[in-house]
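In the previous chapter we treated chains in isolation. Here, by contrast, the input contains two separate entities that must be folded as one system, with a combined length of 875 residues.
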Amino acid sequence: MKEINHINRRQFIKTGSAVGGGLLLSFYLPAFGKAIKTAVNNAPASFIPNAFIRIGADDIITIICNHSEMGQGAYTSVPMMVAEELDADWSKIRFESAPVDPVYNHLGFGMQATGGSSSTLSEYDRLRNAGATARAMLIAAAAQTWKVDPSACKTENGKVINKVSGKSLLYSELVEKASLINAPKLVQLKDPKDFNIIGKPIKRLDTPEKINGTGIFGLDVKVAGLLTALIARPPVFGGKVKSFNADKAKAIPGVKHVVEIERGIAVVADGFWPAKLGREALEIVWDEGALKDLDSITQRKQYAALAKEPGVSARKEGDVAASMAGAVKKIDATYELPYLAHAPMEPLNCVADVKVDSCEIWVGTQFQTMEFMNAVQITGLKPEQVKVHTTLLGGGFGRRGVLDCHFVREAVQVSKAINAPVKVIWTREDDIQGGYYRPAAHHVINAGIDASGMPLFWQQQIVCQSFAVGTVMEAMMVKDGVDSTAVEGAADMAYNVPNLKVNWNMAPGGVPTLWWRSVGHSGNAFVTETFIDALAHAAGKDPYQYRLALLEKHLRHKRVLVMAAEKSNWGKPLPAGRARGIAIHESFGSYVAHVAEVSIPKPGTIKVHKVVSVIDCGPVVNPETIRAQIEGCVVFGLTAALYGEISFEKGRVKQRNFYDYKILRMNEMPQVEVHIVPSTEKMGGVGEPGVPPVAPAVANALFLLTGRRIRKLPFAKEDLVKKV
Amino acid sequence: MINIKVNGKAYQLAVDPSTPILWVLRDTLGLMGTKFGCGVAQCGACTVHLDGEGIRSCISPVSRAAGKEITTIEGLDVKLGKPLEQAWIQEDVPQCGYCQSGQIMAAAILLRDNPNPTDQDIDDGMSGNLCRCGTYQRIRKAIHVAAKLRT
């Protein structure tokens, strides 16, 4: 990404008007209808058939990407979908991040956003249509040139070819003529068997800039006169500044301003280091607020008490109470899952430059529209005076899509207060201790099996916070009093249990919580997949066969499960001291099974040797991206299982940095083998669905080695010792 | 005044000598390829070479570099860097990419000192560099590929 948001909005509208096609009107609805001034434009002529494509006379085709690149490969898969139907020469494809405009809204979310493992599946039709439309216009332009019928032309690798004469024209040679062609209302999309790009392991377009130091992440943005700010935020969530003394901070050479904003005190300096020293020198008296005594041990007791309350019904099948008497064996379990931080490698940051008549923001965000609206609100400027530039995201995992837009609000507020451009940087400690965690949860389950060993009843009580209730997302995420993200992966469990009851009790708020890669599934799948494993063992059955029997009507689950068993040599002998565990889970429209091969090198330690993963995500756009995402999901899930925990003492987060909020390292990396089920079913996501079944697959293998069922995450040393 | 050399260019800098090299590179010299990840030498995103030795620039005061030469991702020697870049592209290593400058700077030292590393050597040499996206398996493979490309 040489230059961010290179697209010139006015040039765009002007060219659009010149094109005059109905297409432009349907693709591009200017957000804030306003006069188009004379375009200042030294750029070479280009053909802009719609908001997603710019074909230059230099033969370069730029795809405007409306999904943020946070590692999931959007800047490659988005161009692939367009280029396929455009019949473009892939070597000429470049990418660019989209500016904020309703035309770039996520078709499912109604705003410009990246998340929910949906970048590819939500754009599959729209972007192929965008490519096919442009292709039709280029064909029409060539047909005009040759004075032939468009049906006498075909396209191939960035050229229109005259089928009769054999002559050809590069797309770049048709730029001017194509700009005068009306866009067709309907276009024919390719038969997937004719795909040249979609379905192929195309190399990522963003690799070169990510390995030579030129890629621009939010932290790397340069603006003339840019200052750096660190913010002292309350040590307890919900706390406030009571009073502060900035004298010592201001005495640090390089410190320019100390200003109070909504969320704390900002120390602004001419670089990170003086800002950090300045922040350390601040004297602040905090009003610590209602959570000043928050303590994880006490909270767990509160959650356990809450689990005894009836809660709200999330799923009800049959009659649990009446069926209980018929059970030949019963199992009870209590699960405890911790808060988790996203900890993206690039700490949060935002650059804001607020002037009297403009505001520009550079940020790695998953939520462009909301950041934009917040900036408009804080500055009081007109919408057309505010611009948001999306940089590369050094990891997202949900953390860069925040409903309150706090990391952008902070930067806009500081810049406005000091009347200068500013980069607000979070330190790693700010990030780990800064909240917006995966909610902690407490589950109580009791279930019984019948004489044949199959589940007769299953009763599950889930306690956790909601990050949807009371926000703009409530209407979308809360149904009949149940936050769908709190119960997903449990209430919609696929296993056939005739008498099933899943209830939810909302835990008190206060600690900021958020979606964390795979959201509610991340914890709920651990519970369901280790518990079903326990039922299989209670029934004396093979856990793979047991699952298969319970998924009779779920063909996609079954196919994934069967392939995972096959590819992992399920049931075949292993070296002494090793065991296999299996888990399967559906989320974000995809189906993933993992088989983990695990050993305990010495008591209290664990080695995950291998994970065989199978995914059915429907039609495949880039198989290499899918493999990479599943590998990443395994690391993410394993990190959480082995180490992930945010806990509280005296209102404060106990963890601080990577030494006590550990991330899996190279020497702990298992061999991951990914298999993709050939599928023409509905397309699902790939960024998240690989996470939920990781921890249960490993825990189920550990059970075979230790005889212990792990019901609390992360794994404790005591869990990794053989039961005597 | 501190005299340092960065990527072959000499600088005379009027900075607080306790300032970590990382922030001199980024804030004073505008070299943004070296990344801030943790500030406490836990993640390796800030890895640079100081007189040919891999260091964590986030905890190394610039005074330590006085009279010495720093190499960053922007100035990595072609003989060391090119095979790594090729291998990284071939194996589709990066995801978010934020840690990759540091990974490559660490891998360059590893391969320079050990042209044919085993998996164990790679684990030993690279476990100080975190990747939250989980690209370790591809890094391991790419280092093997780069080793072959170098010969």
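Chain B touches chain A through 59 residues (CB under 8 Å). The longest strand of chain B covers residues 2-6. Compare these points with the single-chain example from earlier in the chapter.
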